Amino acid sequence: MIAVVAGGALRDIAWLPWAVLALLTVIDLALSFGRPKAVAFEAPPEVFVGETATLRLTIDRAPHRLMAKLDWPDGLAGGGEIPFQPGPGGSATAEVRCRAVRRGIWRFEHPWLLWMSQLKLLEFVPRLALGAELRVVPNIRLVQSGQITTTVLSTLYGVKENRAIGEGSEFQQLRDFVPGMDIKTIDWKRSARRRSLVAKELRAERNHHVIVALDNGYLMREEIGGLPKIDHAVTAALATAWAAAIGGDLVGYYSYDVRPRTFAAPAAGRNAFARLRNWTAELSYVSRETNHTLALTELNARTPKRSLIIIFTDFVDTTSAELLIENIGILAKRHLLIFVTIRDPDLETLVETAPGDLDGAAALVAANQAINERRLVLERLTRMGVTIVDAKPNAVTARLISAYLEIKARELI
């Protein structure tokens, strides 16, 4: 620009810097001609929802200071630019951690690469084909750890094998009466025939029907602790189903939203748990309102035998919960119910925090009202004889399994 304005000889050589720049660009392009052709992707075969996983990207013939960026699918959350570290033979490797926030099979179609040329004049931003996928499944970490198995076996088969007075309702065997035994256990008719005292031993009844009922309506899509409520519910449902299978009960499942969706009759053994896990892995996220009247009426018709039904659902206020309460009352006349809701810890934190302005005071009043209405609904269900499990996401599984074991110990089914 200065040469053009000045005129004269300077104007005649104004093209020279551009020519030099063009030459340097051609040289820089020649020096940086080699480029990555493909990306190798390594990931775990499956990731539990709510947990983090490490993904590994490897590129041969990698340029210096290579960066990458992934287009994260909806079910995964990760970082932005990913730096590559040089490896042997001119390769480069990058590791990135991502968090699974939705169940499903999530694909990585195209990673974006970024690197500078040798002379720093050019910036390359190619997009390579990847076509990799990552499967996010329901969380069964507690089941794999063996903690639930140990708890259930020690509770039902350890201490409980030595039956205390009045425990057990199912006949196990006859044995000779010895001093120190309760005289109420004597079978007088058989004792008369044998002309010696014979006592009956009882044990807890097994093979009860346990049905996991999951409300998959739009209220269960609300995120609490970084995950939708439905995923917290699925985690607790799978843990309880495993406990029931270990405890000798038959496990079935049921899902519904605007109408009944899936029902599987109770089945025995660990195969029932595997079937339940496969079903929950494919359970979709929906945005429809739940029809409790239709769903719970259908469930009542499909379960003629008295069963333990565990209902995972949610409600907003006493008005929206009116039909839910009415239909649960009908269901509770025949079956034993556990009503599971997931408490929002952020709401409780809001109530416990002093407001700093008028907006904060209004939010505090609204939060208090929501908590009070929730308490009123749960109290009405308790008066109907329904067992309530209302806990934060990190405590709902333990509370639910404890409630199940208590029901088993008291033989309420």
TrEMBL record:
Segments crossing the lipid bilayer: 15-34
InterPro entries according to UniProt: DUF58, vWFA_dom_sf
Keyword Transmembrane helix on entry: yes
Pfam families: DUF58
Highest taxon of the lineage: Bacteria
Family annotation (PANTHER family): BLL2464 PROTEIN (PTHR33608), SLR2013 PROTEIN (PTHR33608:SF3)
Protein name: DUF58 domain-containing protein
